[in-house]
Amino acid sequence: MNRFLKNVVFYAILLGIWYGIARAHIWPPYLVPAPGDVYLSLHDGFLDGSIWIGIRVSMERVVAGYLISVALGFILSLILLSSKTLQDTFGRLFAGLQLLPSIGWLPLAILWYGLSDKAILFVIVMGSVFSISLSLESSLATIPRIIPMAGRNLGAKGWKLFWYVLLPASLPNLISGLKQGWSFAWRALISAEMIIISLGLGQLLMMGRDLNDMSEVIAIMIVIFVLGWAVDTLVFRTTERYIAHRWGLSNPS
Amino acid sequence: MTLPQTQSTTAGEPLRVVAPKRFIPHNANIELCGVEQSFASNKGPRLLALDNINIKINAGEFVCIVGPSGCGKTSLLSLIAGLSFPTRGEVQLNNKPVTGPGTDRILIFQEHGLFPWLTVGQNVEFGMKMNGVKKAERKQKVKHYLDLVHLANFEDSYTHQLSGGMRQRVAIARALATEPNVLLMDEPFAALDAQTRDLLHDELERIWRETGCTIVFVTHNIRESVRLGDRVVLMTYRPGRIKNEWKVDLPRPRHIEDAAVAQLSATILSEMREEITKSMEAEFTR
């Protein structure tokens, strides 16, 4: 059985179990709604546009925050690479900071920026920039020595060496770091949106809670799950696979 | 002659002997005067890698440098390439001091150092692109130098699709495409099987004849050095000094199994053995 078919069967069974539990009325429907109710919530949400708006607003935010993180992380990683002392001090600090759950930045962000988009953006950036800059740094630092040597030997120097040699040489590791950074940014976004009136998916999730509407909550969770999965698979995994293939890291099948 | 890897694609075609476009040999003489190089080591005193090296390599000469591992052969090449600098003494190229890397001297490594994200053709093109050669000229030269190493049909392949011997030939084509005066080869065939190595010896000799460039070839394989070199220079174990040198007057083309090659190799080996013992002792007592 191929993987797709396996997954179809798997989710069908999962849905069946869920349906069975809901029908057994072990717990009241406002705690465990049936799949049909969740479907209706999804249907209504898409029909009245609230989910579409949520998706658009959330995606815009996370893309903006992510791009800022990548740009900033890039600069930070180059600065880190320039000195061993900076690596030993700031590098360590970043490694510690990336362990701080991104939501931990929220109170600070709210005090600085108020209950605003800026605060959310700040949390996204803080949640992802350290992991991105550390992985950019390590992927540049772990390029086999022979590659830049060959590049310099063939006349590449300065920005040309960076652009034509170092950057492509580090891409296979770089892309994994960028993928991780994305998942950090995505988590930071949803948590920040839950606290701030924001029109985003996080807020929709919280609205479900406020209205005691469990099927709405689960519906939005499904949307968040599918979106995160889609970006991870369609953007990052595809790129990763392409690079691994092109760089000869996997056996071409 | 063609190599096994290319036989399937060039079968039936007459052997193309690629005539150089203009036979102005690209070469240069190299001179090392009192060169010393030492490295800072984590524990203890500085490590003296090269000590008072004096050698003159003529333009167009094929010089092989042999010695046990740890004799500073690689450091020597890196100095000539301008990728590092001597702590004392001077390296001269055409009677001018070397001040940095330049595409007039190209290094070829044991591991080919090809760029895996580029095709074979793009790899060969790389040096020219970095040096601002026009696109049309680049295309033409890529063809020319891939022809020279018998890989014309692999221009669009990626390097990981090639065998070890083919990769090393791409590395040679990539080096030649910048039309260097000096080819610096650091045990380029050490990781290859014996048959492939034999064939590459023939090709390298032919390419050397056709381009006229100066070659400094580092190896720990004495037979290889006698097979290829006009001159064989033996270095001592740490610190690297020049112990002796032999002029190889044998007629070309040679073969690695020639009796005369074997005989000279034996002479060199008997002198090198002492250095190998020193190197082994140092390894074991570490």
Structure commentary:
The complex is a heterodimer of chains A (253) and B (286). Chain A is mainly alpha-helical and 253 residues long. Chain A folds into two domains: 1-32; 33-246, MetI-like fold (Orthogonal Bundle). Helix content of chain A is 79%, strand content 0%. Chain A has helices at 3-23, 35-47, 50-81, 84-97, 106-113, 117-141, 146-153, 159-195, 201-210, 214-246. The longest helix of chain A is centred in the last third of the chain and has 37 residues, at 159-195. The mean pLDDT of chain A is 91. Chain B is α/β, with parallel strands linked by helices and 286 residues long. Chain B has a six-stranded mixed β-sheet, sandwiched between helices. Chain B has a four-stranded antiparallel β-sheet with strand order 2-1-4-5, with helices on one face. In chain B, helix 4 (135-148) packs across helix 5 (164-177) and helix 7 (222-228) packs antiparallel against helix 8. Classes of the chains: A mainly alpha (253), B alpha/beta (286).
Question: Which features characterize this protein?
Answer:
heterodimer; A: 253 residues; mainly alpha; MetI-like fold; 2 domains; 10 helices; 79% helix; globular; B: 286 residues; alpha/beta; Rossmann fold; six-stranded mixed sheet; four-stranded antiparallel sheet; 8 helices; 21% strand
